[in-house]
Amino acid sequence: MLSGVQAAFAAGCTSVLSLSTSFAGVSSKDSGILVRFLGSGASGWKSEWAKKNPHIRRQSSILVENKIVFDFTMCGFDHLPENLVPAALFVTHSHGDHFNAPAVVRLGVRKVYTHSSWTSHAKTVLEAAAQEAKAPAPEVIGIDFAAPVEIDGITVTAVPSIHSTSRLVDGQIERTAMYLIEKGASRLLYATDTAGISGDAARMIGIDRHITPRRFEKRTVDNPFIHKPQPLTAFIMEATNGDKDEDFRLFVHASVQTVDRIVKMLKKTGRFTPPPGQKAYITHLGLKYRNWPSEKIEADISPELAAAHDGLEVRLG
Ligand SMILES: [Zn+2]
Ligand SMILES: [Zn+2]
User: Which of 95, 219, 251, 317 has its CA 20 to 30 A from that of 191?
Assistant: First the structure.
């Protein structure tokens, strides 16, 4: 039931921005989920850009609890804590601004998870990169949607995103993913790249209005793709299109307005219940906002939202 689960929580790059850590709304330093944004921008990074503008964002990636990385390219090293080797990497999809095989080998991570539709491709390019670097190749593990993986008390579940790479692997098209990250009573959705949240994803997460607690209890078939109704407590979503709602990328990316509408609806219907003061974060910023300081972006967008920036560390309830 809803109330029960809400419980305690109503390289290649150069300049480094100062780190800031926010604990808004989270009572203890061990509560919630610690997230560091290693990058918060869209594709096409060039290291010279950072020399000209320290606010310009690297390719999107996050480090969770100093243990698990989501997406990784060469830019990710700039804000990675020194000598940290993560336990695992989860990749959302194979686009080059999210997955770079030489960077992953250099990271030294031993386990790499991708959606099973393109695991063999990831394995091939990681083995080639490892051979080139004369370094060991990581183990590459294929996962399916709605199949949770547990790593050191953190549960990670892939759900489908609304995006496309058109990559054909062994006759199958790659399925792109976003991730539900759970620790204790905290449930964080890391949603990039995606044009929104599909019905399938909403049902796998437990936030689809059609699946009421009563309907869920009355179900006669155990369906792994329908999660019990359970609100999110933390939310990070891409806003590549900035404030351009009519941009042609609308089939594969989101605008700030898209994120705002989703966040407001989820809050209104009790499906997003962040601790007081904690906002939803926008990341993968492209058009308009990529090189703006977060404070300037936040003065320009809905008060429901906060803008991620590279090096930002937040503990989300
Ligand atoms: Zn991207
Ligand atoms: Zn992409």
Answer: 219
